[in-house]
Amino acid sequence: MLNVQPETLGRNWSNVLQAESNFMSVPDSIDETMDTLHSGGYVADRSLATVLFLSLKMKRPLFLEGEAGVGKTEIAKVLSQALGRKLIRLQCYEGLDISSAVYEWNYSAQMIEIRLREAAGETSKNTISQDIFSDKFLIKRPLLQALESDKSGPPVLLVDELDRTDEAFEAFLLEILSDYQITIPEIGTVSADEPPIVIITTNRTREIHDALKRRCLYHWVDYPDAEREMQILQTKMPGIGNRLSREIIAYVQKLRHQDLFKKPGVAETLDWATALIELDKLALDPQAISDTIGVILKYQDDIAKIASGEGAELLREVKTELSELA
Ligand SMILES: Nc1ncnc2c1ncn2[C@@H]1O[C@H](COP(=O)(O)OP(=O)(O)OP(=O)(O)O)[C@@H](O)[C@H]1O
Ligand SMILES: [Mg+2]
């Protein structure tokens, strides 16, 4: 049910639903934020947990920027699960417009309604137009849904890959994030009882305007260091062998220091581990790497570079370093 402000109320929505207050509340400390994410299988470093904690407390959107596959989208998914909140996802793309992001009228249903009423002898234009521009004929898209009250508390709104949209949409989003309300000309102004938890992600294929960033708390999500990546791997794949996991992490970490067009993200590390386990590997060897390189590298130039000898050298370094540590 939407909350439409009474003073701008058209006709049909006089009953404003108040959100129930018995939902799971947001974490009270940075440690609790880390635990909340961890309970959903997300291993956050302290700086990420801190900015997330602050964004929840200050009720400000969290703007996450970073390379592909470093866990930006996952934060919103895990947070919504851990807090028992609805996840509303707006996947951005070039050409995204208001009818896909906010609302549109269900024209065909409106036409049928008009015909039925005319057939039934109803002639009052006013009554018909009042009724067809009502909740029943409104198709709510993610940004409008995010303003709705929900018994599980304010939802998590994930605006994913904002850099794929154009600046006009960005400006529109800024307007919504400024006061969490949307005006629908035929109905009035719809506003949220409580602001949703907003997480915006971008891969930085273009810069997002300062005005929007200023509304948000910003965090650059970096590749994890070896220790955290090992925690992620063990959290996601608890049964993985010690030797294989150590070699995978050491190799991927080294790979990220190579001059590659596209470095592997955490997603690739997890996929690689899965692939190697599927092939019954207990440790890395040149053949296993060559057989599975397409799981971690997705550009032929990068694959050729690693296949041409750099990969073998990396593997030698990994084996030497790990044997020295043992
Ligand atoms: N810190 C982490 N803890 C647990 N899992 C993680 C972490 N970081 C990444 N992952 C895992 O890596 C995968 C990719 O994460 P995600 O899709 O969130 O990346 P992304 O940054 O949104 O990438 P893209 O920019 O390509 O959309 C997910 O399956 C997620 O489980
Ligand atoms: Mg993503």
What does this molecule look like?
With 326 residues, this protein is α/β, with parallel strands linked by helices. The protein folds into 2 domains: 6-102 and 141-221, 3-Layer(aba) Sandwich (Rossmann fold); 226-319. The protein has 14 helices and 9 strands. The protein has helices at residues 30-39, 46-58, 72-83, 98-101, 107-119, 125-132, 142-145, 167-179, 210-215, 226-236, 242-255, 266-278, 286-296, 300-325, and strands spanning 62-66, 87-91, 103-105, 138-140, 156-160, 181-184, 188-191, 197-202, 217-221. The strands form 3 sheets. It has a 5-stranded parallel beta sheet. A two-stranded antiparallel sheet has the order 3-4. Strands 6-7 form a two-stranded antiparallel ribbon. A hairpin with a 3-residue loop joins strand 6 (181-184) and strand 7. Helix 1 packs across helix 2, helix 10 (226-236) packs across helix 12 and helix 11 (242-255) crosses helix 14. It is elongated. It starts with 29 loop residues before the first helix and ends with a helix. The structure holds adenosine-5'-triphosphate (ATP) and magnesium ion.
What are the SSEs and their pairings?
Blueprint: H1 30-39, H2 46-58, E1 62-66, H3 72-83, E2 87-91, H4 98-101, E3 103-105, H5 107-119, H6 125-132, E4 138-140, H7 142-145, E5 156-160, H8 167-179, E6 181-184, E7 188-191, E8 197-202, H9 210-215, E9 217-221, H10 226-236, H11 242-255, H12 266-278, H13 286-296, H14 300-325
Parallel strand pairs: 1-8, 1-9, 2-5, 5-8
Antiparallel strand pairs: 3-4, 6-7
Helix pairs in contact: 1-2, 10-11, 10-12, 11-14, 12-13, 13-14
The chain binds adenosine-5'-triphosphate (ATP) and magnesium ion.
